[in-house]
Amino acid sequence: MASYHVDSERGGARRAQGEITRAEMRPEQLQQEEEKQAPPPAAAAPRTRRGAQVPQEDRRRSSGVVWAMVILCTVLAIGVIVTGATVFAVYLVYKPKMPYLLVSDARLVALEYDQAGTIDNLVLSLTILAENTNSKADASFSRVDLAVGFHGAEVAVLRARPFAVARRSSVPLRYQVVSAGRPLSPDGMRYMDGALKAAVVPLDLFGKARTTWKVGIFASLRFWTRISCRFLFFYPGNGTAMPIDCRSRSP
Can you count the helices (H) and strands (E) in the chain? Predict the structure, then answer.
């Protein structure tokens, strides 16, 4: 009985101090008490998405490819700039000009034409200059292919072997054109009759040539130069032609 009395006194002392036993706690208070006494939960390991981490070797490989592309683009850009600057400098130094053909003299020496519409004899004297006005580059002409025509009919063909022209000089090409037995169309016959009555005979010169010239040690440039002119000869008469600037043009 004494011990019971002591416990009663302790319990009374606890109630006097405001403490509550578990039997007297409400469910909410019991849950809060258990949460306080429960050990803290272990920290969960961080989750990683599959494939989110890139291996170090792949990173290095990707970085190397990127740097290689950057270096390549830089080299190409520098190459384009250097090439453009070189071409511009060469142009300023050499100041290139296109070689060309120039007719310096033309004369209709003889013309015999019968009533059947045939040119029995045509003699034409032509002097063509191959001009190179470049001061620092030699030039050459090849595949010279020219023709003399009358009202669409080809009367004679003029050709020349390849030849060179020094800088700031010219090479004369002298032709003594002789043509015989060239028949004309009915329209050409009427055109010839009218020209002889007017004493002014038109003859066409047309064709092309290949020009080549070197700009320093950098490049050898090639262009076609084309010529197309119509000469008006005083014939019958002295056979001279009306003044005309007949020279070839390059595209």
Answer: 4, 9
Q: What is the pLDDT of residues 158-169, one digit of tens each?
A: 999 999 999 999
Tokens for 88, please give them: 């511009």
The whole-model pTM stands at: 0.63
pLDDT tens digit string along 64-75?
778 888 888 888
pLDDT in tens, 122-132: 999 999 999 99
Return the CA Rg of the chain: 52
Q: For the CA atoms of 213, 217, 219, 221, what is the dihedral angle to 10 degrees?
A: 0
Distance CA 242, CA 238 (A): 11
Burial of 232 (0-12, 13-18, 19+ CB in 10 A): middle
Positive or negative, the CA dihedral 208, 191, 112, 102 is: negative
